[in-house]
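Re: folding output
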Amino acid sequence: MRSVCVFCGSNVGKSEIYAQAARGLARAIVGEGLKLVYGGGNIGLMGVLAEAALAAGGHVTGVTPRSLLEKEVVHTGLTDLRVVESMHERKALMAELSDAFIALPGGLGTLEETFEILTWAQLGFHRKPCGVLNVAGFYDKLGAFLDYAVDERFIKPEHRAMLLVDVDPAVLVARLKTHRVPAVSKWIGRGQI
C-alpha cells in the first residue's frame, strides 16, 4: 500500500473532536510513509486534513473539479493538484490513485463517495480495502443500519465485512494495510450481488 484516499466533510462539524481526528488520521497516514489522496478542498475537514499531512511532511494529492477551483475553495499549496472536469472524473481518478480508502465524518458527499467505492469493491471493480474512522460514535447508527440490512438480506455478511471500522486512526491504517478484499467470484449468488 502506497497511498490512502480520505473522504471527508467540507465542514468541520460542531465539535473540535472532528478536526482533532482529521489531524490524527493525517499524522497516521504520513507516519506509515503513505501518500494522502483527497478531494482537494481548503475548507472544512478537508482543509484540516491536508494542512496536517503537509505539516507532518507528507505527500498530498488533491483531486478537484474545475468548478470548485474557480470558486476558490481548493487548496493551492498541495504537493500535487489534479484538476478534472466533473465529479465523476474526480472519483474515478481518486480511486485510480489510491490503494485504500477511509471516510472521516462528513455529509452527503462523503457518504456517497464511501458507498460508491464500497459498491465498486462489491462488484469486483477493485479489491482495495475500505474503512471509516468512527469519531465520537459518528458512524454508529450507519453501522447499525448496515447490520439491519444484512438481517433483512439486502446486504450479504461478507459485503458488510468489507467496511472496516475503528476509533483509532493508527489502528485503522494498520488494519487497512493487512486487510484483503476477497475476489468477487466468491460473492455473487442467487438474487444478490
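--- second protein (sequence, then structure) ---
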Amino acid sequence: MKKSLHNLSKSGTVAEIPLACSDELAAVEFFEKQRWGSSPCCVKCGSVEVYKMADAKTGERNSRYLWRCRDCKEQYTVRIGTVYEESRLAMRHWAYAFWRACTSKKGVSALEIKRHCQISYKSALFLLNRIRYAMAPDLPTAPPLTGIVEVDETYVGGKPRYKGHNKRGRGTSKTPVFAAVERGGSIRRHVVADVTGKTLKAAISQVVDPRARIMSDENPSYNGIGKTFAGGHDTVCHSAKEYARGDVNTNTAESSFALVKRGIIGTYHNVSKAYLYRYLWQFDFVWNGRKLNDGERTVLAVKAAEGKRLMYRAAQ
C-alpha cells in the first residue's frame, strides 16, 4: 500500500488538490481517479464496459457527471456507494473538507469549512461527520497491536474536577478515554464507561495481540494484566516522578492525548460525550498516517470512503 500511495503522490496528488477544491469537474475527476484509477467500472455490476455520458447538444460531459454501464444499462456517479452518496454538496467542497481534515493535526472546525466553502453550518457539520465516518477503523479486520504497547487513559471535556477529590474521575463530568498505542505503530482510542480494572482490561484485550508487552503507569486498574500477555507488564510510577525507566514509559500514549486535548480546546472548543468517539476516529486516522505526506493521507481517506454510508439522522 505504501508503494502505491507513494506513486500517487509522485504523480501530483498534492498539485491536484487546489484545482479540485475550486473547480467542480476537476473535483469529480479527482475522486474518480482515486476510486477507479485508470480502470473505471460499474458500481452496480462491476463491469468495465462503461462510458461517460455526454450532453447531446454540446458534446461535453453530462452536467451530473453520470456514467453508464453497457452491460446492466444502469446510470451512476462516483458518489454511489460512498459517504457522499446522495449528498447535494458540490464535490469541490468534499475535496476541500477531505484535504483539511487529513492535513490538520489538531482538526478543522465546521465553522471554518462553512466560511471557506460558503455553505451553511449544518451542511459543513454533516460533511465533516461523514468524513470522520470514512476515517473510522474497521476493528473486526484491523490487525491487533503488537510488540511494545503503551496503554493509558485520560479525561476529555466537561467541567474541571472538584477540589478535594483524589479518586480518579470522581467529582467530574469529563469523559474517560482509553488509548493503546503500538510503539512506532498504530493507535486505538475509544470512549470507555469508566476506568475500572474490568473495563480497561477488556479494552486492552480487544485491540492488543496476546504476545505483546504491555506498559502502563501505576494505575491499579492495570494490575494483573501481565498474566494475559506473553510479553508481560511493566509500569512507571508517575506519582514518584518516574516517567521513564530504560525502555519502560508511556510517553507516546500521553503525547497522543496532548494532541486530542489541544484539538478540543483550540479548534472544537467543546465536544459532547455522545459524539466524542467520532472526533477520536479523526485524530487516530491522522496519527496512524503520520508517516505519510499530506497528499497520501488524503488519498487514503478518500479510498476509505468507499463502501460506507452515514444516513442524515445518524449524522446529527
